TrEMBL record:
GO terms for biological process: glucuronoside catabolic process. PANTHER family: BETA-GLUCURONIDASE. GO terms for molecular function: beta-glucuronidase activity; carbohydrate binding. This is Glycoside hydrolase family 2 catalytic domain-containing protein. Belongs to the glycosyl hydrolase 2 family.
Amino acid sequence: MALDNMKYADSTITINDNIFKSLDIISVNEYLGWYQHWIVKPEEKTCISNLNKLIVISEFGSETLYGNHGPSDIASLWTEEHQEKVYQDQVTMFKRMPALRGTCAWLLVDYRSPKRMHQAYQNGWNRKGLLSDQGFKKKALYILADYYKQK
């Protein structure tokens, strides 16, 4: 079971949901840098739980249209550089989570999603993939690959 029930305060993300008391692993979906802004720098962010259980980040990431390049600091431009920066920031935070035991980027390959209707960038596609719908590698793929190689 994956939930998105976290509290954000300054440099701490706190996971504390009663349902987790019945589970072996805490699994959360977290999209800092995409749906939510970073309040502090990723190297200052810590994710904690008062349940003393292992954590898996079951979803994280951001969207970009393959080949769309530009600034890394403006999410609404959907650039590969922004997606790459989101992954860099996520990895930085992951390294500060002692209870973290796994991550799952959302998602590997862009896929059709009729409700995704941003005409310039989605046009019926979920663009959170590390690979385009044609299999082309986006810049963020290399950030995650390097992180996994270090594990």
